[in-house]
Amino acid sequence: MHSQSMAQSSNAALKSGWLRLDPVLTIATAQLFGTSLWFSANSAADDLARTWGLTAANIGMLTAAVQSGFILGTLVFAVFGLADRFSASRIFWFIEEFRGRLRGF
């Protein structure tokens, strides 16, 4: 009986708008957090330039490579519908297995 009363109270909260979020705001926030990873090379640019002796052009190419990887990966997942066909853990396992074999591990 307790779970039924909790479900009723959460339904009432949703109907009243207390827990309801604006869908556009939710999508915009998700996009912001998701695409912020695209600029991860920029956040480490100074350290990478010092450690590896990279020039500004090299950092630009590294940033472009990271962004291209995100775009290409998203395109492949979308075209083949991989996220709908397989679980995330299976996809992750396959990619890491493939990467390990490429490196000879």
Automatic annotation (TrEMBL):
Entries under SUPFAM superfamilies matching the protein: MFS general substrate transporter
* Keyword Transmembrane in annotation: yes
Which InterPro entries does the record cross-reference, listed alphabetically? MFS_trans_sf
* This protein's UniProt keywords: Membrane, Plasmid, Transmembrane, Transmembrane helix
Q: Where are the transmembrane segments?
A: 21-39, 59-83
Q: What is this protein called?
A: Transporter, MSF familly, N_term
Natural source organism: Cupriavidus taiwanensis (strain DSM 17343 / BCRC 17206 / CCUG 44338 / CIP 107171 / LMG 19424 / R1)
